[in-house]
Amino acid sequence: MAEYGWKPELGISLLEKMRADLKTAVLGRDPAARDAIRQVMSEFPKLTVPLTLESGKKSFRCKREDEITNDDILGLIQGLVKSEKLVLEIKKEASSPFLTVLSTYLPRLASREEIEAWIGANVDFSKLKAPVQAMGPVMKHFGKAADGALVKEILEGRQKGLA
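User: That's the sequence. What structure does it adopt?
Assistant: Structure tokens below.
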């Protein structure tokens, strides 16, 4: 199997890397990778920009290629991974080729220890009414590299520890 996947250190955009990987998958006759990459690309019309028309009516348009960011694509991939995991859970299967290919494009998630260490060093809970209010700054720091459910669980654990 060819080397698929993306890391920010590669120096090219996620869109460019996916295009190159799609070409590799088609030429290498790798249907699992080809179909997974095409599925992600078929989600691009969901990426929109809000508009206000001359009449004042609110509308939107699809983002152009030059407007699509790595975070936009990562959000689409995370959504597809989440839905695939639900399907696999129902089928009582561990993994699928589709999930394997998609996972290569996602950044490594921050571990519980990394998140807890950052929270301990950067969040002053004395200024917050509840620890869960730190969710915004934590997610802003980690971005797509942190699982929101894990961050919430950590913060709620701190709340129970304070109570």
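Residues 8-103 form one domain.
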